[in-house]
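User: Could you check the structure of this?
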Amino acid sequence: MKKFFSVIVCLAFALSAWAQTAEAILAKMEEAINQHEKEGVAMVVETKVPVVGTVRMKSLMLGDKVRMETKILGHQIIIWDDGETEYTLDVKKKKLDIVKSSEVSSQDSGDMGMFSGITDGYDVSINKETADAWYILCKKSSNNPNKEDPETLDVVVAKGTYYPISLSTKIEGVKMTMRDISFGVTEEQVTFDISQYPDVKINRK
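Assistant: Sure, the predicted structure tokens are below.
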């Protein structure tokens, strides 16, 4: 009996050593993201806006370049931004607005920056665990000085790869979810090419 009890105790200690904390999981997630940073990232950003409803945007990012595509009130809108110039195309109206780039927050563009440094401003814990993923709840720390940071973040991390599966939060009452995250974006995918839209009306602002 004593030998059996000793085996159980040793097994319990081994299992506790294998168990990972939320902090360790998020650190490995960030490391996995950094390893693929130069490859570019694609994702879907889903925003639930009162009255308007759910707006889905496909976002592609490579270096300083971003391409965002969405549908609003029946209009397909595509935006390219290379850090210097922003191109906004209304496919239905065949109208192209060209303006100087402005700084776009990570909350608007679906920037992967939202996945980094989470443990610096949040108290994190594993909310749920399945065979394929960890579900991590991040609550804003009382000593977090950034007023713009949302109160909570729900992060889902894939087991094995530590790739982010999704991040959900509320920003000023608007629920946002970043999902369908994948790595590998080409230069052509994020670069505006006027030759692809020869019949658009150009409006320079």
